[in-house]
TrEMBL record:
Alphabetized PROSITE patterns for the sequence: SULFATASE_1 (PS00523), SULFATASE_2 (PS00149)
Pfam families hit by this protein: Sulfatase
InterPro entries, per the entry: Alkaline_phosphatase_core_sf, ARSB, Sulfatase_CS, Sulfatase_N
Names of required cofactors: Ca(2+)
Record gene name: ARSJ
Protein name: Arylsulfatase family member J
Compositionally biased tracts (Basic residues): 561-585
Length: 600
């Protein structure tokens, strides 16, 4: 069966079923149809990849539910859309050759975040979004949570959906979790979401939803709530499938009741897969990875249009706040582009951590603006709880700030610094030392911090090239075109004025040692508040073969406790029997036989 598009709804009915049915319908019905058209025409007309009959199908499903929203709640509907591995340049309004009409329009009518930071890889960004805390305060400061690790987001952290549920929100997650699942208590439905439909791992096949972590460690990874969603194993492209689920949630929810939707799309993370029709506009792109990536992003753009259309159709839009973000920078070897920024996904250069982001909402006071104030992914936690009229416990130490007034009204950001990370396990800078850190900091440790205009990096920050668009002209990207930097021997500290030099071309660490020392002290202060790193070795019990062919919770602590208690009881009973036996033997050995002979 040929794959359907990204719209997330069934094929449209025949034109006779809904187009201009003047001869078939009474005049009253025709008048109603014209009103419907007037209400929706403006939104239906934009988005180059959209087909009118496909959108008509959604309107036909909505029927008479299309009407201006009337809200009985002051709490806004919160829609957080997280793209996966989208590069900084990979959006139309940043100059990309990839067409993203939906993102361009939503951003242009909202507030573009042009000084917005996330983490360089998947799990850290997601954990910081959902807790409002830096990695060093959750123990997730090293790498990602891997499928075979008995690890997850610490259970003692109150999550964003849990806080929103406290104030009456219905909470739903669709898409990629990647915050651990080794215990049932780690699953999304146990961390505050009323419903979950998506994947638990970091990546997988877009059609089959299978993932191999290593040879012999393969399994199915699509869940509905706490169970494998075998019924959805129909070869449907995940972007389409997730969009369809979002539409179903909105269609069945009362828009007068607040809803939180966390849509974490799998796109545009590898493997590079997309339905065939999205390649049509990109035949001129020679590099196959870039072409596939472009098709995936176009599909994602169209899907987001359909999510926004559903918000309007079902009466949510007028009281909604839509936030769009990438989880980290793009990966050039997988088609992504961060040009003109330095570095890529997995690095602490700007290309790894500076993200595409914007807010779109009728509730914004200053629409059509650009925000250049400092914003970090941890800020969404307190911001959304505040918008929801919720409360944050005084004893909870958050790293995020409420930045709604900064975004909506253009006020100064309360944020003046960002701890990008301190990873005490990653110490690959062979020439790093305490001496290089002026006795304040061991520069072998990978770390990065931003304080106002200044950014300091220590250790090995990762792949540091600039990858311009022309590097994608051949299979590759072709490193011949890259602007390569050979890290000088002994180099383990860098300092940049990011405001003046956002592309990190001029290292100022030798020129301003005083500022270097100041930022090293700040790193040291942050490090004193860090909790131990959680990065356990893999557990062979995680193998999907032992779990019905499915990736899922495997660690049964209660069973383990019962077994250990049972073992203790058995050992105790055994000891008791041995003591009793010995006692009996002593009694027998001390007694005499009836014949008068001592028993021995």
């Amino acid at each position: 069966m040929a794959p359907r598009g990204c719209e997330g709804h069934p094929p449209p009915p025949s034109p006779q079923a809904w187009v201009c049915p003047g001869k078939m319908l009474a005049m009253g019905a025709l008048a109603g149809f014209w009103i419907l058209c007037l209400l929706t025409y403006g939104y239906l007309s934009w988005g180059q990849g959209l087909e009118e009959e496909e959108e008509g199908a959604l309107l036909a499903q909505a029927g008479d539910r299309l009407e201006p929203s009337t809200t009985s709640t002051s709490q806004p509907h919160l829609i957080f859309i997280l793209a996966d591995d989208q590069g900084f340049r990979d959006v139309g309004y940043h100059g990309s050759e990839i067409k993203t009409p939906t993102l361009d329009k939503l951003a242009a009518e909202g507030v573009k975040l042009e000084n917005y930071y996330v983490q360089p890889i998947c799990t850290p960004s997601r954990s910081q979004f959902i807790t409002g805390k830096y990695q060093i305060h959750t123990g997730l400061q090293h790498s990602i949570i891997r499928p075979t690790q008995p690890n997850c987001l610490p259970l003692d952290n109150a999550t964003l959906p849990q806080k929103l549920k406290e104030v009456g929100y219905s909470t739903h997650m669709v898409g990629k979790w990647h915050l651990g699942f080794y215990r049932k208590e780690c699953m999304p439905t146990k961390r505050g979401f009323d419903t979950f439909f998506g994947s638990l791992l970091g990546s997988g096949d877009y059609y089959t939803h299978y993932k191999c972590d290593s040879p012999g460690m393969c399994g199915y990874d699509l869940y509905e709530n706490d169970n494998a969603a075998w019924d959805y194993d129909n070869g449907i492209y995940s972007t389409q499938m997730y969009t369809q689920r979002v539409q179903q949630i909105l269609a069945s929810h009362n828009p007068t009741k607040p809803i939180f939707l966390y849509i974490a799309y799998q796109a545009v993370h590898s493997p590079l897969q997309a339905p065939g029709r999205y390649f049509e506009h990109y035949r001129s792109i020679i590099n196959i990875n870039r072409r596939r990536y472009a098709a995936m992003l176009s599909c994602l753009d169209e899907a987001i249009n359909n999510v926004t259309l559903a918000l309007k159709t079902y009466g949510f839009y007028n009281n909604s706040i839509i936030i769009y973000s990438s989880d980290n920078g793009g990966q050039p070897t997988a088609g992504g582009s961060n040009w003109p920024l330095r570095g890529s996904k997995g690095t602490y250069w700007e290309g790894g951590i500076r993200a595409v982001g914007f807010v779109h909402s009728p509730l914004l006071k200053n629409k059509g603006t650009v925000c250049k104030e400092l914003v970090h992914i941890t800020d969404w936690y307190p911001t959304l709880i505040s918008l929801a009229e919720g409360q944050i416990d005084e004893d909870i130490q958050l790293d995020g700030y409420d930045i709604w007034e900064t975004i909506s009204e253009g006020l100064r950001s309360p944020r003046v610094d960002i701890l990008h990370n301190i990873d005490p396990i990653y110490t690959k800078a062979k020439n790093g030392s305490w001496a290089a850190g002026y006795g304040i900091w061991n520069t072998a440790i990978q770390s990065a911090i931003r304080v106002q205009h200044w950014k300091l990096l220590t250790g090995n920050p990762g792949y540091s090239d600039w990858v311009p668009p022309q590097s994608f002209s051949n299979l590759g990207p072709n490193r011949w075109h890259n602007e390569r930097i050979t890290l000088s021997t002994g180099k383990s500290v860098w300092l940049f004025n990011i405001t003046a030099d956002p592309y990190e071309r001029v290292d100022l660490s030798n020129r301003y040692p005083g500022i270097v020392k100041k930022l090293l002290r700040r790193l040291s202060q942050f490090n004193k508040t860090a909790v131990p790193v959680r990065y356990p070795p893999k557990d062979p019990r995680s193998n999907p073969r032992l779990n019905g062919g499915v990736w899922g919770p495997w660690y049964k602590e209660e069973t383990k406790k019962k077994k250990s208690n049972k073992n203790r009881a058995e050992k105790k009973q055994k000891k008791s029997k041995i003591k009793k036996k010995r006692k009996q033997q002593k009694t027998v050995s001390g007694s005499t036989c009836h014949s008068g002979v001592t028993c021995g």
